[in-house]
Design brief:
- This protein is an alpha+beta fold.
- It folds into two domains: about 30 residues; about 140 residues, no CATH class.
- Helices cover about 35% and strands about 20% of the residues.
- Strand 4 and strand 5 form a beta hairpin.
- The longest helix is centred in the N-terminal third of the chain and has 26 residues.
Length: about 170
């Protein structure tokens, strides 16, 4: 009798523990952030063994043509496949590095972000990527977007203008 009572209490404890585990795992969701304009994500893609570059991330408008096509047209590139573009800003040379969708998933945890503008798949014309990420380095191979960089304001201003120009081209 005493043994069966102990066994029943043991099963009851496990049942309560299991029920509590199920309720907690299903009921607690991770907070997601909406990118209103852009965000800077530290430690993204690594270049030549250095620590990860900071990335300028913004939400993609899937109703527009792909961002790569926009860059190809704007900078008169030879191919849509080019991921690195040299630009001159105020007499200094900088390299913009575009992340493809696989790199975006690998280096940036996009599950932390929630889409502000969700479109049905029928309306999608361009890229299927939810976000676009860019890094920028100086001609001396310095991360321009890292907090405290001498180039930080120049890089953010330029990339924000590039983003705004892309999103304003409602094709």
């Amino acid at each position: 009798m005493e043994r069966s009572l102990l066994r029943l209490m043991y099963k009851g404890k496990w049942s309560v523990f299991l029920l509590l585990f199920i309720v907690c795992s299903c009921g607690i969701t991770k907070q997601k952030f909406i990118i209103d304009d852009y965000t800077i994500v530290p430690n993204a893609k690594e270049i030549l063994g250095n620590k990860g570059l900071s990335a300028f991330v913004f939400e993609n408008n899937k109703k527009l043509l792909p961002f790569q096509q926009f860059l190809t047209n704007k900078f008169k590139l030879d191919s849509y496949q080019e991921k690195e573009i040299w630009v001159t800003i105020e007499g200094d040379k900088y390299k913009i590095i575009l992340y493809d969708n696989d790199e975006l998933i690998k280096y940036i945890n996009t599950s932390d972000f929630a889409l502000a503008n969700q479109n049905p798949d029928v309306v999608n014309i361009g890229s299927t990527a939810d976000y676009i990420a860019l890094s920028m380095i100086s001609s001396r191979n310095e991360d321009c977007l890292v907090e405290g960089s001498l180039y930080e304001n120049i890089a953010i201003k330029y990339l924000k203008q590039l983003k705004d120009e892309f999103l304003s081209n409602d094709r």
